[in-house]
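seq:
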Amino acid sequence: MTDPGPDVERAFHLEPFRDHLGFERGLSPRTIDGYLREARRFAAFAVSEGAASPGQVTYQLLRDHTARLAEEGRAASTVARCVYALRGYFRFLVVEGVLEADPSERLEAPRAGRPLPDVLSVPEIEALIGAVRPDDWAAPRDEGILELLYGCGLRVSELLALQGRDLDLREGLVRVRGKGGKERLVPVGAAARSAVGRYLRESRPTLDRGRSQGRVFLNARGGPLSRMGVWKILRRHVQRAGILKRVTPHTLRHSFATHLLEGGADLASVQEMLGHADISTTEIYTHVDRSHLRQVHRSHHPRG
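struct:
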């Protein structure tokens, strides 16, 4: 590691940070050395990139630093320790009044051995939705739920929070309130528009007995459908479809993103539809897409 030098040590308040870790947080000497090592490493990198003090550090600079570590072949656990150390360092600077805002606030640590999300194939999705029995009283509701979860990539919490005013089936849009209260507009495809429209016309008026709280999806008693209710609905149709994979509501969201990318959608558009604050979260689906492409190559190329 390049020694940042005494001038940089002073400019980046590294000595006071060491005192803070030892005297105020009471950390062990080994932990202090680890935190200080990461802060020094970043300070040297920041200066090499033209940031002469913590006040000139941006979130993008922090991202560039952690990306560089990953490109050097460092383990995800090592990069994660760097992120945790830098978060502690910048929180210290904010508390001490050196900085007004924390540029590391949105910095995410990589997950070691992060598994690829489970997805259903297009035929499995068709089998799942096709398993809804037309003669079942709940068929319009259940089909609408499955079509929205898969067709719009909604989180189950987002689905359950939907109110009538959030749906514009004529324009084919749904307004979704995601994490942190952030709103986004997501296109609603023809299949989902048809299924949800049928539910709103044929089933919901019968279910609504004044206890709906304005929610779109209701249970048999007329109250807002619960998270567990959605799980039970999904599990019932998964079993009817004969799907042996473990399927959760989030599996349909994963399938939505994966099938879009396989069909040629760009990553930024998928990020917007999923409501991810950081595109690095969406990038996990590019790994799924590459896995799909490798399978296609093996299956269809004469030298695969």
